[in-house]
Amino acid sequence: MVKPIEPKKIPNPVTHQFKLEYARQAPGLLFESLLCIVAALFLFFYPMETLQTLTLIFGIGIGLIGIYTALTGLTRKSMWGVLMGAIYAAIGFMFVSNPATSFITLVYIFAALFFIRSFFSIMLAIQMIQMRVGHYIISFVMSLISMALAIFLLFHPSYGAITLVYYIGITLLFNAFNNLYVFFQLRKLSK
Fold first, then answer.
1. How far is CA 86 from CA 54, 63, 97, in A?
2. What was the pLDDT predicted at 23?
3. If DSSP codes are grouped into helix, strand and coil, which group holds residue 5?
4. In angstroms, what CA-CA distances link 108 with 41, 76, 103, 133, 158?
5. What single DSSP character describes residue 95?
6. pTM for the predicted model, two decimal places
7. DSSP string, 115-169
8. If we measure between CA atoms, which residue out of 98, 88, 34, 29 comes closest to residue 61?
9. Per-residue pLDDT for 189 more than 80?
């Protein structure tokens, strides 16, 4: 009896692309998760120092970016570059010289950053749902919680700067746990 030839299995191109794309991101997810956990713990134990340090670092960073942008604008004879550099330098100076106003500004900046990060986490969770990869509901729920915390920060900055530090810590933990979950799901895909 002649044995029929089995057709060669061709992987689903979408699933295959998903595996290639996100398998490269797996080590970065693990590193980001560990970094977020360490940062969150530091935030919980040293909230005031963290807030002062963040304000100072942000102010110095924006100021240096402003000076660099202004100098680059001068050398290229770009009025737009000089103007943007002057604005960045002024914002940096404000952060260093006026910490009270800077705390509230930091609330909005971090809330916007967490909102953007949560949006991309939700998009990843939706892709996981479409591919039926792992327990995608967990990733989706964690992303929605991170998004809710970001929206809360955007609309309620008056609760104070220390509250911001704790919410940043909580959001970092949710982000870390979500990234760890996705990391372990991606490891299953690569096997």
1. 22, 9, 16
2. 65
3. coil
4. 22, 33, 9, 34, 11
5. H
6. 0.50
7. HHHHHHHHHHHHHHHHHT-SSHHHHHHHHHHHHHHHHHHHH-GGG-HHHHHHHHH
8. 88
9. no
